Amino acid sequence: MRRKRTNSRLFYQFLLSHVLIFAIPFIILSSVVYYNAVVRFKSEIEASNVYKLNQVKNTFDLLARGLDNTASRISIDSELTPFVVKSGKYKEIEAVDELGKYKANNTIVDEVALYFHGDERLYTSSGINSFDTFAKRVYGFNDLDGIRLDEEMSRLKIPEIRRIQTTVTGSSQQQNVLMYMFPIPRNSQSPYGTVSFFIRESMLTDLVGPILGDFNGSVYILDSKDSILASRSHENDLTEQDAKQLLVSETQDGIHDAKLGGEHYSLMQAKSKWTGWSYVIVMPTDQFLGRVLEMRTFVLLICGAVVAFGILIAVLLSTRQYRPIRNIADYVRTLQVWTHGNDDRRHNELDLIRDSVQATRDLMKRIDEQRPIVREQFFVRLILGLIKDEEETIAFLSRENLSLPEESCFVTVIPMDGSEYISRQNREELLRLLSEISMTDAVGYGVELIPDQSLAILISTGCNESCLRQVQEEIAGEIARLFEHCCGFRPTVGVGSPVSGLIHANRSYIEASAAMEQSGRIRKGEIVYFADMSEWQEGSEWYPIEEQIRLVQSMKQGNNEAAKTALVNIMHDLEGKEVSLFYFRCMSFDLINTFLRTMNELKLSIPQEYRSHLAEFTTLKQLDAGMTGLIDLICDYVQANKESKNTAMGAEIFQYIEQHYQEYDLNLEKIADHFQMSISYFSRYMKDQTGYTFTEYVTHLRMEEVKRLLKHSDLAIKDIVASVGYSDVSNLMRKFKNTEGITLGQYRKLYS
């Protein structure tokens, strides 16, 4: 029942969260929308109309500039000068054609007329007419005859526009025409003529009409003298005479409120600085209230529908999101082992999942911490020849995202036998630098081989055979330089021969180690290449000295397979020798002597059964059988000796920890420096031997000592904590309670 109540409470938390997530922004948004709809609707419409007016104003400014430019071009047109036009009939016809071109380039112009002072005719794009004919018959002006038209064009000094009422020919329909006149030449104090553009009012009203949209009102275009040039109305009874009263009352750009005959109007005005024309919208304000009321009702309906839909969605989302969390929590409960004190937390799904995620995060962190150790262990096994499967190598490199060239690889070895002291700090810095080496043609990874007291660096390169030696020299020199930089002296470096494929790296390692065995022939601090050892051989009739070296080194390392491979190569070479029996037996006994020297160095005696095989052999097959048996014997002995040394070293390390775990300054660095090994190697060794990290092992020893003292002594808890190497009493008390479930005082009462 308790779990069910918890689940229900969590579900309602989800539901409340979704409702709040929906409700808070919805309320804010609704308030803003309502405010904009009810309070700011009118101002937004007005602002929008002002914006449209400005667009119309800019459009008309462009048109007016175009007409002005056209008038200027006509004034400088060589075909339209008074002298040329009046020079004959043919020139008059050409002038009419030229005016037709100018008209065609101005889409809003209905007619273009050119007048020269003192002339009795008008030159237009449609022909040559007298003033009276043009005024009465061509356009049918109602309030302008030919004489007045002549007078207006003759006296014109600056551009002027006027509105003229006309009667459409053949009907009684009335329409307005705008006459836009420019003196020519432009900006002259003594013009010799006038260019007039005739524009039908409908051309302008068609442009300004869409501004109103579905709102009631009127749009007016006024000239610089506030005379109406064009107008367009939509369901508005306001006459032009009434409009003039309103327009005169407000002459500034922007939005204004006006009143006429008890009716309230909203005026939106924009004035052109270039032409001086004004563009005005007059709208009755009472229409806004109706629109707002309609919108308010619509908004309320929409809000109600959205609220109902939002609550439904919140319930559905809460159910869908709670169900998988509950399922996950149920699954985690089946896997989780809860300790005392967690009874309440286990019923809370979110806390349960959070604890599980934290545990997973801790596990991933531990994996990341172990990743360098795993990588180092992989290269150790690869160098020692413990990995034979190429697919395993490829899989590991892919998993660790390591990119190694696959052409060839080789191993370099540096002795770390303790002949020169290297501090822990220098050793750690050296291992850090050699852990990953990146050069133009090669990539290298270095590892520490404590049992062999050496550093081995596996180098993989993609260069071809012709440049391998150069790459070896460059990398060996760089490794020696890094070593000298960290440790203060130049080491002797052994370099094995290149091999094809990473799984054959052990062969190069054996050769590099063998090169180090020959260091007696070279000065300390030099680089020894195994490939150069064949030059030490005195004659070509002898079996290969490099195979002999591989054989010896493989046996000393306990590598049975590599040693037998070297022996097979030597025997195969001996079988193909065409030498005297005496010379053949000398080589055989030299090979036997190689085994005897190796066993003598290892302080290993030859069993009786092998002596006859070596002393009384008559064929290479008998000799090979005896030596193969000795290889098994020697390699088994070396492996057993390594395990013994490893066990002895482990015992020494654990003895040291047990003797010093009560010291405050006992740490990884101190022990690694004492035993001359790296911190990473020591950490891995502790984990392999005990299953615990160094810190966990020391903490275990200290906790056991604390429990012993709590049981069998009367020392104060503070003194007990100090005696086991802890300076922070609260830290140890917290760790003790986490592991034992009770406090130090409770433990003493329980067991003393």
Describe this protein's structure.
Helix 14 (505-517) links the parallel strand 16 and strand 17 (527-529). It is elongated, with a radius of gyration of 53 Å. It is α+β, with helices and mostly antiparallel strands and 752 residues long. It is built from 25 helices and 17 strands. The model is unreliable at 1-7 and 338-346 (pLDDT under 50). Helix 14 packs across helix 15 and helix 17 (581-601) runs parallel beside helix 19 (620-660). The chain has a 6-stranded antiparallel sheet with strand order 3-2-1-6-5-4, with helices on both faces.
Could you outline the blueprint of secondary structure elements for this entry?
Elements lengths: L1 H37 L2 H36 L5 H4 L3 H16 L6 E6 L4 E4 L2 E4 H8 L7 H10 L4 E8 L6 E11 L8 E8 H8 L8 E6 L5 E7 L5 H10 L4 E7 L2 E9 L6 E7 L1 H50 L13 H35 L6 H10 L8 E8 L8 H11 L2 E2 L3 E8 L4 E8 L6 H20 L5 E3 L9 H13 L9 E3 L15 H13 L2 H16 L5 H21 L6 H8 L4 H41 L7 H7 L4 H12 L3 H19 L4 H7 L5 H12 L3 H8 L1
Parallel strand pairs: 16-17
Antiparallel strand pairs: 1-2, 1-6, 2-3, 4-5, 5-6, 7-8, 7-11, 9-10, 10-11, 12-15, 12-16, 13-14, 14-15
Helix pairs in contact: 1-9, 5-6, 9-10, 12-13, 14-15, 15-16, 15-17, 15-19, 16-19, 17-19, 18-19
